[in-house]
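Is this the right way to post structure tokens for a design question? Let me know if I should format differently. Anyway, here goes:
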């Protein structure tokens, strides 16, 4: 598809320059264009810089969502049929729980080198490594379908969990690098959408593909079919990333990104960036509250089969459908929250409201799980998922606002690291509480921490740095020749709520 764009040289006196045909660059036909327009130099600072939105941005975010889906599917594919894999590999329930928890444990030590690599090498390298590891893990699993090869299937799951480290923190980075200021939250929601859809399919498909049968040869055949299907999809996505995934658009989508591109690489210090983030008190509060909320979701997802089977024996398929309901409702919540944020920019208010409703949903789910009516569980689980899973993109986008102009991958990585730590703690503790005191006590345990997270969210001071930077750029754009106060580097003030 042919594409072109005239990049005009601009003059210091503010006159609009004529397009220079030698500076034409290729661009997709039909892409929206924002001409460079006037620039003015005042006090040593430049005014507006050329920005552009490319149609390819939708292809990039959808491809990312697809390989994120393939990876997250495998997180829960063992746990949702926990009892079946226990029987096939002759291991206990806690061992199968680790097939999900390994995703959380692997993330913690590797997130810092991966975010450093993201800052040094960029999105394309991270995407290639993620899809390569995920593809390798799926084929290792194909070779593990024998009762005495649990160690091999665990190795395959470890490879997939390592791939996840290169995936989880990417939605906000892709949204910032490719999308305009009025659509970054929606784009981030689409990126998270893929992860959630993968979990949803992971809840639904394994109980259908792998029925609970006694014959070990038949069971091995069912498991192999599931593993082969996953490997085929992972391989296709790896090939697509090689040929399609692009590092970044030629022109930045926003003035905030244009400013970020001007920072010389030699002036950027990953260690200094981490230290600045750890001194950012609102962001530290968000790290903790995000970890509490998402950690609870991880625990519920990992232990869902055990909780349902206790009260509804033989309902493995419905346990998967309940998990599907949780995540599908969460995907709807994510998209609604993303669109709402793009329209209103009410980051703290929306985050606090969704967090509080997650607490309410958890309380209702805990109180109704043992009533003996599966249709009630479907409804309460869906309400819980709408808010708890819908919170994920809110946390990412709020973090980017609080930490701009720091790397989105670094801030998202710290959020996810907190989620993995709390996810491991909550999964182990809730599992032990369920074994000793029942499902109600285990769910009340999670409710207590969601209450703590809600209170802490209310204490976060909203400091919308990225929005302030974009508003400053827009103010400069409306002036014929911006004065010094408009073209100075952004002065960030706390947004009053």
């Amino acid at each position: 598809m042919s594409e072109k764009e005239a990049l005009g040289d601009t003059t210091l006196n503010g006159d609009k320059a004529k397009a220079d045909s030698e500076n034409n660059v290729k661009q997709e036909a039909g892409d929206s264009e924002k001409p460079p327009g006037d620039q003015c130099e005042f006090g040593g600072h430049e005014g507006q810089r050329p920005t552009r939105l490319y149609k390819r941005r939708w292809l990039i975010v959808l491809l990312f969502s697809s390989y994120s889906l393939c990876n997250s599917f495998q997180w829960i594919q063992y746990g949702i049929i926990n009892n079946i894999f226990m029987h096939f590999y002759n291991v206990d329930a806690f061992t199968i729980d680790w097939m999900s928890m390994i995703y959380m444990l692997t993330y913690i030590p590797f997130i810092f080198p991966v975010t450093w690599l993201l800052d040094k090498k960029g999105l394309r390298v991270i995407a290639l490594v993620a899809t390569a590891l995920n593809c390798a893990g799926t084929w290792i699993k194909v070779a593990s379908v024998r009762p005495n090869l649990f160690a091999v299937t665990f190795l395959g799951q470890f490879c997939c969990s390592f791939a996840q480290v290169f995936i989880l923190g990417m939605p906000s980075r892709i949204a910032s690098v490719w999308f305009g200021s009025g659509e970054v939250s929606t784009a981030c929601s689409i990126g998270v959408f893929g992860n959630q859809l993968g979990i949803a399919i992971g809840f639904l498909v394994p109980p259908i593909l792998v029925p609970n049968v006694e014959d070990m040869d038949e069971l091995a055949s069912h498991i192999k079919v599931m593993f082969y299907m996953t490997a085929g999809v992972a391989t296709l996505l790896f090939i697509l990333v090689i040929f399609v995934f692009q590092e970044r658009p030629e022109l930045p989508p926003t003035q905030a990104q244009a400013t970020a591109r001007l920072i010389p690489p030699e002036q950027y210090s990953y260690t200094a960036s981490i230290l600045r983030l750890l001194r950012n008190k609102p962001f530290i509060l968000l790290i903790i509250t995000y970890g509490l909320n998402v950690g609870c979701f991880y625990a519920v997802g990992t232990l869902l089969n055990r909780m349902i089977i206790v009260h509804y024996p033989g309902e493995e398929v419905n346990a998967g459908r309940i998990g599907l309901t949780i995540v599908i409702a969460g995907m709807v919540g994510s998209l609604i929250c993303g669109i709402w944020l793009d329209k209103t920019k009410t980051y703290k208010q929306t985050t606090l409201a969704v967090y509080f409703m997650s607490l309410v949903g958890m309380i209702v789910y805990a109180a109704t799980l043992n009533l003996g009516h599966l249709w009630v569980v479907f409804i309460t689980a869906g309400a819980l998922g709408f808010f708890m899973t819908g919170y994920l993109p809110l946390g990412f986008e709020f973090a980017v606002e609080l930490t701009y102009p720091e790397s989105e991958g670094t801030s998202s990585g710290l959020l996810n690291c907190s989620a993995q730590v709390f996810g491991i703690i909550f999964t182990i503790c809730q599992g032990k509480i369920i074994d000793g005191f029942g499902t109600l006590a285990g769910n009340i345990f999670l409710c207590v921490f969601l209450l703590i997270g809600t209170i802490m969210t209310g204490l976060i001071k909203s400091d919308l740095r990225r929005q302030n930077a974009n508003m400053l750029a827009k103010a400069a754009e409306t002036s014929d020749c911006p004065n010094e106060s408009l073209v100075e580097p952004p002065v960030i003030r706390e947004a009053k709520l």
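Format looks fine. Someone answered above. Worth noting: Residues 1-45, 481-497 have pLDDT under 50 and may be disordered. Residues 281-311 form the longest helix (31 residues).
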